Amino acid sequence: MKFIISGGGTGGHIFPAVAIANEIRRRQPDADILFVGANGRMEMTRVPEAGYPIVGLDITGLQRRLTPQNILFPVRVFRSVRKAGKLIQEFRPDAVVGVGGYASAPVLLAATSRGIPSLIQEQNSYAGLVNKLLARRVSRICVAYDGMEKFFPAEKLVLTGNPVRTEIAHGSRAEALDFFKLDPTKKTLLVVGGSLGARTLNLATAAALGRLRDAGVQLIWQTGKIYFPEAQQQAAPYAADHLYAMEFIRRMDLAYAAADVVISRAGALSVSELCLTAKASVLVPSPNVAEAHQTKTALALVGKGAAGLITDEHAPPRLYDETLRLLADPARQQQLSQRVQELARPDATRTIVDELLKLVGK
Question: How many CB atoms are closer than 10 A to CB 185?
Fold first, then answer.
């Protein structure tokens, strides 16, 4: 069987896509899987690292102000749809999956116009623009949250949860401590601002390095590419105290295994991983997302006693006060861990692939 998986732009799109591909491959080892992404975006490196081929389209999103990119946007869409059509004619997929992001639009347009079964996977509680525009054309829509009828046709919806790499929850703590060169007698804090980094979290963490050292806490700090050079310099004097800045963490299974507490944005993928790994966390929702959906997601966890919450505005003065209190309170960590694990959907990826295979009659 042959499948095309399209979309990307951020880890929140790419990693669910890879999880779906891995589940297809697990069930059908001889399945032929092709990814389609946007040239210049992170999927063009992350997907090959996961072992899958990818083709890039020359497409970008609309900017909020008048720019040369916006003027060229219709031309790029036309060219991308034409290229996607040629790919589909040559590859002849049995079904197509869109995970959101610029590149999924031309592929889904080309596939649905040819009557090829198609499925959208929407990670967020507030649907992305591409998925909303294409909802009436596709065969099935897999969602992670209740109430998505306000964005999509109800008869196409399947509540599945978000696909998360299953290995993320099976990291060995002993291997993790060795991998990150950590002290087994100390508490460990993991800071992740998403695959592209988060300015607020990075500034707050840089300012707190001395406090973490004095508290005997060690740090795994994913900064993102843009912030890494400065963060690396800031963390360098604390290397002997096991406070490490990293551009990107490829072994997130080991990062979670090492962590006692996690500071994170409240993106859909991050929250799904925290649920699956049962980690005590302090969430700092991004203020730069549509309809404040990260804040809504974080509040849903807080309401169930499953996470702590600090707003982006209050993070600089208050984030590390809250985090250090949590690190010093094992009972509170255990309570948060138990509550967040109750929200996990470990079968999400399997359910999505079940729906995909139903579409092609297998």
Answer: 7
Q: What is the DSSP string of 281-295?
A: EEE---SSSGGGHHH
Q: Are 282 and 315 in contact (CB under 8 A)?
A: no
Question: Six-digit token pair at 42?
Answer: 């992170």
DSSP-H helix ranges across the chain: 11-27, 43-49, 68-91, 104-113, 129-134, 173-179, 199-207, 209-214, 228-235, 252-258, 268-277, 293-303, 315-327, 330-341, 348-359
Per-residue confidence (pLDDT) for residue 261, from 0 to 100: 98
Superfamily of domain 2-162+346-359: Glycogen Phosphorylase B; (3.40.50.2000)
User: Which of 162, 165, 344, 349 has its CA nearest to residue 253?
Assistant: 165
pLDDT digits (tens, 9 = 90+) for 105-123: 999 999 999 999 999 999 9
pTM for the predicted model, two decimal places: 0.83
CA distance 14 to 140: 19
Domain with CATH 3.40.50.2000 in the chain: 2-162+346-359, 167-341
Does residue 187 sit in helix, strand or coil?
A: strand
